[in-house]
UniProtKB/TrEMBL annotation:
GO molecular function, a single term: monooxygenase activity
Protein name as annotated: FAD-dependent monooxygenase
InterPro entries xref list: FAD-dep_Monooxygenase_BioMet (IPR050493)
Keywords, comma-separated and alphabetical: FAD, Flavoprotein, Monooxygenase, Oxidoreductase
Co-factor requirement: FAD
Lineage, opening ranks: Bacteria, Pseudomonadati, Pseudomonadota, Alphaproteobacteria, Acetobacterales
Species in which this protein is naturally found: Falsiroseomonas oleicola
Amino acid sequence: MRIGIIGTGVAGSLLAEGLAGFDVTAFERVAPGDQAEAGTGLNIGPNALKALRLHMPARHAALREASLPWHRWFVDLTDGTRLFDLDMRDVAEEPGLRIRWSELYRLLRAPVAGCTRNGHALEALEEDAAGRMVPVFRTAEGLRREGGFDLLVGADGRYSRLRALAAGEPEGTLLGVCIWRLLVTDAADCPYDDYGQWFNGNARLLSFRVPGGAVYIAGTFPLPVEGQIPEAMKTAEAQRALFTPAEGAPCPAVAWMLDRIAAHLPDIHWARSATVPVLRHALGGRALFLGDAAQAMVPTLGQGATQAVECGVVAARVLRAGGDAAAVAAARDARVDFVRDFSLAASDTLLPPADVVAGTRKKMGPEFLGRLRRLYTEVD
Ligand SMILES: Cc1cc2nc3c(=O)[nH]c(=O)nc-3n(C[C@H](O)[C@H](O)[C@H](O)COP(=O)(O)OP(=O)(O)OC[C@H]3O[C@@H](n4cnc5c(N)ncnc54)[C@H](O)[C@@H]3O)c2cc1C
């Protein structure tokens, strides 16, 4: 069986590595080494680490080596009042990790460089006389065809071209939340380390250190559901007002972040939080979708890249054993439904009229922690 993988991000790279020895070619639109110095940071959940530890131990070791452990998760108000404090080992078998985006891609792409064609952006889809899919790529030299494939895997992210070509452009659902992200590299004086969140009303800062003396900061605030992000919110003054408590001063951690936001405003990446309906396969099973291409979810529990890891690991296992796209769906979809529902439910405090103090304290209760334990450990 000839397999073509579109996109060597998280899911695509892991799938290509897991299918070593099979007839696999991966196609990636960016050049080799692209994103090496760019991008922000991210946290990957203990569930992805467990999947890698069980099935791809070399990749587990490489990621651990290049990252910081995610041991602790706390939630404060922006005045410093503590609402939630969790030792990750209470709900997981191992810590998660914190890493720079560029480093994650470098480590996942390196082992599959030999089977990857860079500078190939999927543009169109044709069929050969034998009924095999023929992807058409835009390259620097013009359009290129690489022959027919029995299975094409769309691991090309949230705006998957393969999914649009095979099943139509999916309709996204907006959560009604703006999310911005920033990587601060001059962060030696940052007054905190592990994963923290700070609320002022429903507006929230999230931040942690990543390797190389850098700090990742993400901010969210409510938006009218169909609304654009107002330009007036993209100023240092507006962000300072958003996260400054009504009474008193911001705590030192928040004061530090507000200064960094002001200093690095042009580097901030602004987006609206959205989901798309899950689609695992199309074209009679000849197109399979993994990661964000299949299941883009709200980022509240940091499960986007984490679930893409699970997807790559599980799909490789299923396809190696002779399974098809339907078998991957059987192995993945119930788990993905659970994670998407949980991520959405956990977003409650990001939206009015939720009471952040009551809602966050409730998350230290057995119901939320039980679901978190399921999320972080139910991987085989
Ligand atoms: C700034 C930012 C911060 C994030 N932070 C977090 C976080 O902290 N935690 C978390 O879990 N998730 C986070 N996410 C979400 C996370 O990025 C995604 O959920 C995750 O990368 C999905 O992995 P994937 O393998 O499905 O796709 P991606 O990692 O997006 O990879 C898709 C790949 O396909 C390639 N590609 C795209 N189109 C084509 C085409 N037409 N032809 C060929 N190749 C193509 C791309 O170049 C890329 O290499 C963040 C997202 C962003 C944008």
